[in-house]
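Troubleshooting: if your tokenizer reports a length mismatch, compare your output against this known-good record of 264 residues.
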Amino acid sequence: MAAKVVMKLGGGLITDKSSFKTAKKGVIDSICSEISNIIDNGHSVILIHGAGSFGHLLAKRWSLAGGINDEISEQQRDAVVKVRSDMAELCEYVTDSLNSYGVEFAVFPPSLWAMETGRDFIGDLDIFENTPKDIVPVSFGDIVRVSGGAEFGILSGDDLMARISLELPSVTHSIFLLGDVDGMMDMPPNTEGSRLVPIWTAEEHIETSHNSEQDVTGGIELKAARASQISRGVDEVWFINGNHPERISQLLDEGSTIGTKILG
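Known-good structure output:
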């Protein structure tokens, strides 16, 4: 049976989050090659990507997640323009790679079609459903308009994942590709003795680490919360190491792979 896959490339997977605007082109290429194989096998893909060092560092510096601050409003508005431009640049790394593997795509920057932040953002998701099956819709975490006095805010790619996975019909798989870890770990990954959790439910407490100096959208905690929500409407919700993209095809072909399956 053909799968309908909503997939997120984490910002820490496709960029070096500690180095301003540094894309991991080799990683991006390996994933896009696998996406090409997936499409050739009759499946469809909707692709979301994070910001990594193309968005988080500047957003953190100018406190963009909290909206307008009158004391630094001019610098913030300049930063909003710059982050949107930088996100378009990162997206181009992804789409150039898709193109090199013969994958057609359509890009939908949230700043052009969405407003408000969080799980209840406003935007027409039909743009993803109405894209032809053999064309990959691409979107990403972005700075969007918000109502009231805040003026702008950050719409996370994890919130896009939740809404798209749950509200588009017939989604079979929602896959979060992580960087440098095989899935959800029982302790922070850099802790000696940490082990992969093959199946995770929201009732299970996992000790995580979140680098608030680099990440302005909630890190692994937000991913876990959104994945748990998605699992209530989508059977196959997974955290997989994006440095091993062949595991995506293994999951689609065999029903399981190395990673963490989220069960709500």
